[in-house]
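ingest -> validate -> predict -> emit
validate: passed (alphabet ok, no gaps, 199 aa)
predict: started
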Amino acid sequence: MTLPLENATYTARAASGASISPPSQNGNRQIALTFEVSQGEHAGETITWIAAFHNTPDKKGRTGVDRIIESLQYLGWTGDEIAELVDIDEARVAVLFPNEVELACSVEEYDGNTRLRVNWVNRLGGGRFTFKEPLKGADLKSFSSQMRGQIRNMQGAKKASNGASKPDPHPNAPGVKDDLPFLSCEIGHEPSPIARVLR
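emit:
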């Protein structure tokens, strides 16, 4: 089996050492690294990531070289010699690349063929959206306290709307009727002789 031809994100581990190409016509080398999907229904399937060592910055100012180094570091690599990543066995792969990562994959056409391509190697969970300056620490706790009352009010309203029994009213509360005869103010319903005379 192979991975389906659809845009997807997979949790994976490095399954081999790296391979480095000689310079291409534009002078850039490439790195290739095979990954094995480690979670989900496609666990055990492999896919190869290929990226170019180039110095053209993207919109965020990072070059291909920056991206490759960053990806290798997400895998847990802490060295500075690319050569140590080449021609290594499984045991060494596990030592140099101990971390799982997220592979962001998309379908592309290349030389008339449709294939699944690894676009990004992200830190595990790093592909999720986050604000540039997310609320943290004391500010987060303060906001949480502000919201607590509103959340509890909503929870209480929800319980009431679901048919929760209401507490019995106080006997002296306005609008509470009692069946004691002397509390009646309706003369027509008063059974006493005086009431009948007054009528």
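The helical segments are 64-74, 90-96, 137-161, 193-198.
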